[in-house]
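Researcher: Last one for today. Full complex below.
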Amino acid sequence: MAVKLKKSTARRKAAPAAAKRTVVLVATRKGAWLYHSDAARKSWKIDGPHFLGHTISHLVLDPRDGRTLLAAAKTGHLGPTVFRSTDMGKTWKESARPPAFTKAPEGEKGRSVDHTFWLTPAHANEPDVWYAGTSPQGLFRSDDGGVTWAPFSTINDDPQYRQWMGTQQDGTPDGPKLHSIIVDPRDPKHLYFAMSGGGVHESRDGGASWRVMIQGMEVVEGFGFDPKLPTFHDPHCLRMCPSNPDRIYQQNHCGIYRIDRPSDTWVRIGRTMPKKVGDIGFPLVVHPRNDHTAWVFPMDGTQVWPRTSPDGKPAVYVTRNSGKTWQRQDAGLPKTQGWWTVRRQCMTGDTHDPLGLYFGTSSGELWMSRDEGRKWQCIARHLPDIYAVEAAVL
Amino acid sequence: MNVLIPDALRSYTQSGRAQARGATLAELLADLDRQYQGIRFRIIDEQDRVRRHIRIFINGEQVDALSHALRETDDVVIVQALSGG
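Model: Here's the assembly. Have a good evening.
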């Protein structure tokens, strides 16, 4: 809400900055919701459901115009699509050509997109460009704001990449995914993406060529997997630090990592997490102004991988020194019997100072902290299984 | 010819019935897509396979091949399979 100012006088004071509102975009297994806050982030106005009954894997606001939304959607019965709104969700229009693989030559078995999983707005200087990652793993690009999509670069049909991607059986329970598409804010041609499974990949020439970036990343022990092969790597979430684009944090199937470019080696920084909690999880959030600070939401990765909060005690962990130490942040969260799963796209931050943090659970609860994780409060419950949470300051 | 449209696709047609033309199932689906942009990709994937939870019946017989020949008098029924949760 904009602050109403008095008319100017001869000696006017500097105008206070307009109070900025926050919108939290919640994508779920059964639709999407937008939560609009007041300036203090204390009261929230609900806008939704949008697309009730559709599985929305990701709902993203374009930071370049502050009003265009893209929603990656499918239903239980129908094929996948992307919806686009240019009025903050008042009206939606379906993509004229959603992400789809190239048709295979006669006699060959081609792949089909099950769902678009990840949406990334491209560089600030490329206002209509978006990237999309799909399940099974595919990389797509739109040059017209999400109206039409085409396969991007060669990886979708490259034999080597196809081998690294594996089959449907090699992926996560609801399908292998290409995710964490990152554009370097200093150079639109410098790109990263990750695959579950299939490792981390980097391009410095706008996607014309890619190189594997898995050095230092560990693989599941005890099965004889070769850590040099991308196919055995399962990065869950990569986040580049806006204040230092040479630094990327990673939550992986096998721990928490950090890399400082130009180094090519990931360093496991999760070893300093408490032993009883471990360093397994899905989401990771970085501080927009401090590259030493990052948050994770650990989960139980023992035995059959319950993927729930360790010991039923949900907590966020923060590092403020680049991973040397971690502190538990659970004030306001259930002290016991909280068997939560928070997916890789389900934790995010806004850009306020102090930073607001948000996460959504598979049991349909949306939680937030106005003070960088010190205290938490639930702002919505009884939602469907939450698939993604994004926040933007308007 | 008459095409029966399932609930899940009525956001495109605004009706449970549509009229479309074509000498084959592929042509009929292309005609539907011309009238209701995007509907074909929700039914048929990029490899020209009928999607997993969709069935197409022509005169009561299930048809998977898009090359299947059609006559003007055929009844085409697109069905969303009963599944999910």
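The mean pLDDT of chain B is 94. DSSP finds three helices and five strands in chain B.
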